[in-house]
TrEMBL record:
Protein name (record): Cytokine-inducible SH2-containing protein
Pathway in which this enzyme or protein is active: Protein modification; protein ubiquitination
GO MF, one example: 1-phosphatidylinositol-3-kinase regulator activity
Organism: Astyanax mexicanus (Blind cave fish)
GO CC annotations on file: phosphatidylinositol 3-kinase complex
UniProt cross-references to Pfam families, sorted A to Z: SH2, SOCS_box
Cited PANTHER family: CYTOKINE-INDUCIBLE SH2-CONTAINING PROTEIN, PHOSPHATIDYLINOSITOL 3-KINASE REGULATORY SUBUNIT
Residue ranges annotated for the SH2 domain, each copy included: 70-186
PROSITE patterns assigned to the protein according to its UniProt record, in alphabetical order: SH2, SOCS
Keywords of the record: Growth regulation, SH2 domain, Signal transduction inhibitor, Ubl conjugation pathway
GO biological process, one term: negative regulation of signal transduction
Length: 230
């Protein structure tokens, strides 16, 4: 999956284009049945959303983030830039957003240096922030690892639907645009994943039905606690 975004590198006030169609501002899963659906963003009204669901969904999302190993917490934009500057293109991490209206930011190394994309939360789902007219068609996800997995293109369902079409390519690039590719996470030295978690990732990448594996119940529950491939 490709994300296309204009200059400058992090930090900066410019915007980002997702798949060549969506513009998103540049910032300098299996929890339960209700919080496990990939859906287009729909307007949330006070009558249709119970605020107590926010606590449950956000708690689950952060549990997954802490388990991932690539959530860096409250580092600054400049610290994220320093961490990514010597990495290969496509290396990414997730950190707390410095913007008061957002919880999280996706920081990614691009061909022109590190840059940021804010992650928006609304009604139990996360999505990349966007000011594009196509905003209502942006997919949202119940967890941040689910969002990242989608743009990495490693999700089982999305991968099967693409078949042999390969990577999605932006329709057009503007003069100052650069291509942002999510390829690999940068693990935090303070939160490096355990051997057990790395084994869980390997299992998740090789089967989409871990519950059917001939494993003890406690191991099956451990797999279900983090049903992602990244």
């Amino acid at each position: 999956m490709l994300l296309c975004l204009p200059r400058p590198p992090l930090p900066g006030p410019s915007s980002v284009m997702v798949s060549g169609r969506m513009r998103v501002p540049n910032d300098g899963s299996e929890s339960d049945d209700r919080c496990n659906q990939l859906i287009p963003v729909q307007p949330i009204t006070p009558q249709s959303w119970d605020p107590t669901e926010d606590l449950r969904c956000i708690t689950t999302a952060f549990q997954h983030l802490h388990a991932s190993g690539w959530y860096w917490g409250s580092i600054s934009a400049s610290e994220a830039r320093d961490a990514l500057s010597n990495m290969v293109e496509g290396t990414f991490l997730v950190r707390d957003s410095s913007h008061p209206h957002y919880m999280l930011t996706l920081s990614v190394k691009t061909a022109r240096g590190p840059t940021n994309v804010r992650i928006e939360y609304s009604g139990g789902h996360f999505r990349l922030d966007s000011t594009s007219p196509a905003r209502p068609r942006l997919l949202s996800f119940p967890t941040v690892p689910g969002l990242v997995q989608h743009y990495l293109g490693t999700g089982g369902k999305e991968k099967k639907e693409r078949g042999n079409k390969g990577e999605e390519v932006p329709v057009a690039l503007k003069d100052s645009a650069i291509v942002m590719k999510l390829r690999q996470p940068l693990h935090s030295p303070k939160n490096f994943p355990s051997l057990q978690h790395l084994t869980r990732l390997a299992i998740n990448r090789h089967t989409d039905r871990p519950a059917q594996l001939p494993l003890p119940r406690l191991l099956l529950l451990y797999l279900q606690d983090y049903p992602f491939q990244v």
